[in-house]
Amino acid sequence: MSNHYDVIVIGAGPAGYSAAIRCAQLGMRTAVVDAFVFKDGEPALGGTCLNVGCIPSKALLDSSEQYHKVTHQLSAHGITAQGVELDVEKMIARKDRVVKDLTGGIRQLFKANKIEWLHGHGQLVEAKTVEVRRPDGSTERHSADSVVLATGSQSVELGAAPLDHERIVNSDRALDFTEVPERLGIIGAGVIGLEMGSVWSRLGSEVVLLEAQDEFLGPVDRQVARTAQKEFKKQGLDIRLGCRVTGTRVDGSVTVSYEDKNGKQELEVDRLIVCVGRRPNTDDLCSKEVDLLLDERGFINVDEDCKTNLPDVYAVGDVVRGPMLAHKGQEEGIVVAERIAGKGGHLNYETIPWVIYTDPEIAWVGRTEEQLKKAGIPYNTGVFGFAANGRARAMDQTAGMVKLIAHAETDRLLGAHIIGPQASELIAEAVVTMEFAGSAEDIARTIHAHPTLSETVHEAALAVGKRAIHKAN
């Protein structure tokens, strides 16, 4: 069987399915090739993000937060709860329902947009020909005018801590623990490690994170990172920096051998999660006859329009340069679809927001003070703490701050860094301001409702000019 399409997309994660939907909206006959199978054995759209990444982790973060509030925080509100019980299996089942609802929604969108889903492994066998290897081993080839590669990424494995998928697992399997480990070790204190650590710490685990870097959250503004480290320590997360894992031994429990500034150390835990980064899914993406250009780390080389070295073959999402973020991939997919259709798609890589969904949340966009100093760019900063915000006080969530950075001469907003409640939502105002080349003054002169958390952004903007109302400047 062989069909010809206007566009074939390989990969059905946020980058791939967004590209496919936009192509279909623009009148192109579109097919998507994806082989993902959910843990129940059913084929599923949505890729890593919806099935074993962004969505399920946020579902568990929310469930664990609810449990922690009931067991540790409600008494301050005059609420006493007795007989509180934790049903981890029910929590996991809820997470799976959330995932199923969303992946089923993508399937309905494919149906509504007349997108054909070819379930199987997709391989580029000629410049614009894709071979689909079905689960039963059969193969079929399809051609297209344009091909979009959007195969996403996978967890990096660590030779010193080989996975056994029971005691030593990656972040995917950590979403399906059926009981709370008494002692949990995590290799890597980045975004994924901190989020996984937060989930199981709130539920009662004693969590130790071993981070190879000497600096905590290197890409994050230093003032924000220091605040985060202090808050996580209060919560009981044991974050150990400068730790190089040298080996593991499984014998009922897991013994982790590592080296730090004090020499050789050992850590004994019940479960170990390996969260040391992700790598692009480009293995077996092309046949030997296809000369797709990759870099030394396995990423697909693309130009500013996401074009590869092959004619009419594009690549988007985690398989190309830039941050491995679902929303970045999604926007790239939409942009590529519009370019294929002859329209002027555009993506500003300087205004991509980042979020860590811990408590407090951490979010940022643009450049840090450290980057601006290194570049010799003059700047002013404005900082405002949630402790002085009425809504945050009423919510009893006063940890953290909003920090805005503006050019010293033009006042153009260059960066925003937030740690605190709903940082993931508050960052959007800064993103919009930067997208429109706005200034701190623009935010300062915009009326924000009272009482709201967004007033911290307003006050930080005022503080850039040393005129914040609710703090001493």
TrEMBL record:
Family indicated by similarity: Belongs to the class-I pyridine nucleotide-disulfide oxidoreductase family.
Pfam families (alphabetical): Pyr_redox_2 (PF07992), Pyr_redox_dim (PF02852)
Keywords: Cytoplasm, Disulfide bond, FAD, Flavoprotein, NAD, Nucleotide-binding, Oxidoreductase, Redox-active center
GO terms for biological process, alphabetical: 2-oxoglutarate metabolic process
Required cofactor names: FAD
Sites where the protein binds FAD: K58, G122, T151, G152, S153, D318, M324, L325, A326, H327
Naturally occurring in which organism (per UniProt): Halorhodospira halophila (strain DSM 244 / SL1) (Ectothiorhodospira halophila (strain DSM 244 / SL1))
Domain Pyridine nucleotide-disulphide oxidoreductase dimerisation: 352-461
Listed Gene3D superfamilies: 3.30.390.30, FAD/NAD(P)-binding domain (3.50.50.60)
Reaction(s) catalysed (UniProt annotation): N(6)-[(R)-dihydrolipoyl]-L-lysyl-[protein] + NAD(+) = N(6)-[(R)-lipoyl]-L-lysyl-[protein] + NADH + H(+)
EC identifiers of the protein: 1.8.1.4
Note: The active site is a redox-active disulfide bond.
MF terms in GO: dihydrolipoyl dehydrogenase (NADH) activity; flavin adenine dinucleotide binding
InterPro entries assigned to the protein according to its UniProt record, in alphabetical order: Class-I_Pyr_Nuc-Dis_Oxidored (IPR050151), FAD/NAD-bd_sf (IPR036188), FAD/NAD-binding_dom (IPR023753), FAD/NAD-linked_Rdtase_dimer_sf (IPR016156), Lipoamide_DH (IPR006258), Pyr_nuc-diS_OxRdtase (IPR001100), Pyr_nucl-diS_OxRdtase_dimer (IPR004099), Pyr_OxRdtase_I_AS (IPR012999)
Cysteine-cysteine disulfides: C49-C54
GO cellular component assignments: cytoplasm
Cofactor note: Binds 1 FAD per subunit.
Official protein name in the record: Dihydrolipoyl dehydrogenase
Domain FAD/NAD(P)-binding positions: 5-333
Binding, NAD(+): G188, A189, G190, V191, I192, G193, L194, E195, E211, G277
Location within or outside the cell: Cytoplasm
Active-site residues, Swiss-Prot/TrEMBL: H450
